[in-house]
Design a protein that fits this description.
The chain has 454 residues and is α/β, with parallel strands linked by helices. The chain has ten helices and 16 strands. The strands form three sheets. Strands 1-2-3-4-5-6-9-10 form an eight-stranded parallel β-barrel, surrounded by six helices. Strands 11, 12, 13, 14, 15 and 16 form a six-stranded antiparallel beta sheet that branches. The structure holds beta-L-fucopyranose. Beta-L-fucopyranose binds next to loops.
């Protein structure tokens, strides 16, 4: 191996390239390892998106409306989508996803498909369009908009009449996908409740996905079953350990699928998976997804948000953090100030990065080691590892050591790295850092290592 090819001269950034012959696990691996599309890459590098749950539930204090809500109750009087977008941007979010329709069926845009929408209420005198205001605000603030259209619809009489409801659902999607410019993400859950008289709705997911692909080829489609990004298997925002961005598409075939192995497949992905489908970790800044004044005391603290970043982005997932607008139509002052504190913590982390000199050694066909000399004994409290995922994901096992003199002490160890693997440490004084890559499943690209004082 030519060492020069593998070492990046930049200070605390260490690049290692390992050659892993296909021999050992060749039969378990696809010939071509999956890699992210340009959209998936951008989606992951965004790191954080903001979720906005807003609708009739905001006014009834429910989490799941039953579809019988009077559209007149949707009456935000101070709605300012620019405040949502400004808050998101200031806190380092790169996109915002709005509930265009939740399970109650109330549409936040003036759809032609039903009168159960903003057009039937007092908002902007019946001429308003929350989706339009959200996408315009995002673009004005340099953010990319995304939309969630619940497949479960407790209002629409066609729900449960499978082909007819599927037509209607695709009509709603078509409106959203054609009238609002480019969308970063289209978000689907698998909720599939009762229809009128207990009728069961069978969704046509292949049709839905091909419609989105055709009308918004650059949008990332999220659901349990992707096709572009997958649910991480819980609603507390934690990425799996391990967390592979590859999956076997036969394990979770449609959103809402239940059964043995589904949760584990969502959380961990599959090292031998044939499809690139990274995990998105969704959670709320409050107890509920919708705003309830009773939840004002449950807003995550900045410490909690900082931890959440390590558990999601720091475990190779994308963080989708819900921050629900109030009845007035604004993000609550408490949520905004917690987000500001969180952003300050992230900035502090990035600015506390400690520079050093890297030395790389290949120790075997599937192993490598990187030593980072910080030049002086200095306290560290966090680290970040990262693979160059443009080339796929490969690291399966690693250990991180620190030393002030000749003796190495274990700081942390883990399995996958992927886009990012971060950890917080008890403040430890070290002069040198050593990352040992103990196993890879395939040729790995660059592995970067950074350490931080805070
Ligand atoms: C779930 C829904 O049932 C919840 O209300 C919420 O929207 C969550 C993000 O997705 O499927």
């Amino acid at each position: 191996m030519n060492r020069r090819t593998f070492v990046r001269a930049s200070a605390a950034t260490i690049a290692a390239r390992m050659v892993a012959p296909r021999l050992l696990r060749a039969n378990a691996l696809p010939v071509e390892r999956p890699r992210p599309s340009a959209s998936q890459l951008r989606w992951q590098r965004d790191e954080m998106a903001m979720f906005l749950h807003f609708g009739v539930n905001t006014f009834t204090d429910r989490e799941w409306g039953d579809g019988r809500e009077d559209p007149a109750i949707f009456a935000p009087t101070q709605l300012d989508a620019r405040q949502w977008a400004r808050t998101a941007r200031a806190a380092d979010f790169r996109s915002v996803i709005l509930t265009a329709k939740h399970h109650d069926g109330f549409c936040l845009w003036p759809t032609r498909t039903t009168s159960h929408s903003v057009a039937s209420g007092p908002f902007r005198g019946g001429t308003g369009d929350v989706v339009r205001e959200m996408v315009d605000a995002c673009r004005a603030e340099g953010l990319r908009p995304g939309l969630y259209l619940s497949p479960w619809d407790r209002n629409n009489p066609l729900y449960g009449d499978s082909p007819r409801y599927n037509d209607l659902y695709c009509d709603q999607l078509t409106e959203l996908l054609t009238n609002y410019g480019p969308l970063a993400e289209v978000w689907f859950d698998g909720a599939n409740g009762e229809g009128p008289n207990g009728r069961k709705q069978t969704y046509d997911w292949p049709r839905v996905w091909s419609l989105v692909r055709r009308l918004q080829p650059n949008a990332v489609m999220f659901s349990d079953a992707g096709p572009d990004a997958r649910w991480c298997g819980n609603e507390n925002g934690s990425g799996g350990e391990p967390n592979w961005s590859t999956v076997n598409p036969d394990t979770v075939r449609y959103p809402g699928q239940d059964g043995p192995g589904v949760t584990a497949a969502l959380q961990h992905g599959d090292a031998a998976g044939t499809v690139w489908r990274p995990a998105e970790a969704d959670t709320s800044i409050r107890k509920g997804w919708f705003y309830h004044s009773d939840d004002d005391a449950t807003v995550r603290t900045e410490d909690d948000l900082y931890d959440l970043y390590f558990k999601s982005v720091g475990r190779n997932a994308k963080l989708l953090l819900n921050v629900p607008p109030t009845r007035g139509g604004l993000l609550h002052a408490t949520d905004v100030s917690r987000l500001t504190g969180f952003r300050d913590r992230l900035t502090g982390l990035r600015e506390s990065r400690i520079q050093g000199t890297a030395r790389w050694t290949s120790t075997g066909p599937r192993t490598a080691e990187v030593i980072l000399d910080l030049g002086r004994a200095t306290p560290i409290s966090a680290f970040r590892l990262g693979e160059n995922i443009e080339e796929g994901q490969s690291v399966a096992k690693w250990s991180l050591y620190g030393a002030t003199d000749a003796e190495w002490g274990l700081l942390s160890r883990g399995t996958t790295i992927g886009y990012a693997r971060m950890g917080r440490l008890e403040p430890t004084v070290v002069r040198r850092i050593r990352l040992v890559i103990e196993d890879v499943i395939e040729t790995a690209g660059e592995v970067t290592v950074a350490v931080y004082a805070q």
